[in-house]
Amino acid sequence: MLVPAARTKKVIVEGTHRTRAPEETWEWIKPVLPRVGITRIADVTWLDTIGISVYQAIRPNSWSLSVSQGKGVTPLLARISAVMEGIEVWHAERPALPSTEATVGEMRPGLGYDPEELTLAERHFLHDDCRVTWLPAQSVDTGTPTHVPAQLLVLDGRVSRTWEPPLFYPSSNGLASGNTLDEALLHGMYEVIERDAIVRAAFGGDGSRPQKLDLSTVDAPSVRTTLELFGVAGVNVSVRRLPSQVAVPTFDAIIWDDALPVSFRGIGSHLDAAVALSRALTEAAQSRTTAIAGSRDDLGKKPYRSTGTPPAARPSYESDRLDFTAVESVRISDTAEEVRELTSRILNSTGAPPVYVNLTRDDMGVPVVLAVCPGMRYKALH
């Protein structure tokens, strides 16, 4: 596959930031679909009444989830989002990287982070004498070589004759792709920030509390359009700005209506507050459409059991109602510069540099990474 030259300057698209136009990205990734086993792409937007674009990419022979999802303010962006998620998961199912077998104690001096600060499995018994399979990684800021436990990222759900003690919690948190490596890193780090913020809001963190957003003050045109779609469909929207330990705008959107009285959530983080809010709103719509479609492997029974039950009351933050224009927002036009800014904020907050596993395959050329931010929390919300 021909890999386009690396770019760092952004093409600003409504509701998102990218380094190339969506039309160009689509033509670039189309040849990859057969290789990763994507056999069909479904537009499920109008299974719901909202009209926010939601697509699904289906991989029948997946080793984990067979349905990947994408959302966006346009059908093309949603289609690309679904396909890129499918590509990411395919790479994480079968990482083509050399592995190292060593104990935690043997690896600890050269890691540059504390393994206990990673996402640990429930009832784990991690200690320095545990023998672990490690994959090569590097720090985002300096490129210093390090390693990450393979158990943290390999999404191979096939039945195996071997057994490993549960030490780390495998998930897709931080797994991301992009037009360039920097773009993939940004997507991955923002996802880690989202999950960290929602866990801290739910279980406590630095004592600060969420603030309810006054949606009438939102001045970003693309976000206003999205909010109007909810309004026309009769869907209620409530948004909170979540405290972020890395000082990145992060929003938690909840939607529900009388016709489908179930709460659905979306979370978004980005230095550009309009992009963060757009991501939260479109993800909430995606969550609802996914439940209606019923084709996601990991959906479970919860959305259906709670149908007909009024949404649980949320704490009132009326006294803290937040003006959207007061949210600190930074729009950076260069992805490399944005990576440096985000990395600096994470390092200053956690004391550990974010690291990443480069899952990109030379014969495919689509940048795929797993971003790992030791010290940031995670809960399996998705």
Automatic annotation (TrEMBL):
GO terms for molecular function: transferase activity. It comes from Micromonospora inyonensis. It holds the Pfam family YcaO. Residues 70-382 form the YcaO domain. The keyword Transferase applies. NCBIfam families: YcaO-type kinase domain. This is Ribosomal protein S12 methylthiotransferase accessory factor. PROSITE patterns: YCAO. InterPro entries: YcaO-like_dom. One of its GO terms (cellular component) is ribosome. The keyword Ribosomal protein applies. Keywords: Ribonucleoprotein, Ribosomal protein, Transferase. Residues 292-317 are annotated as: Disordered.
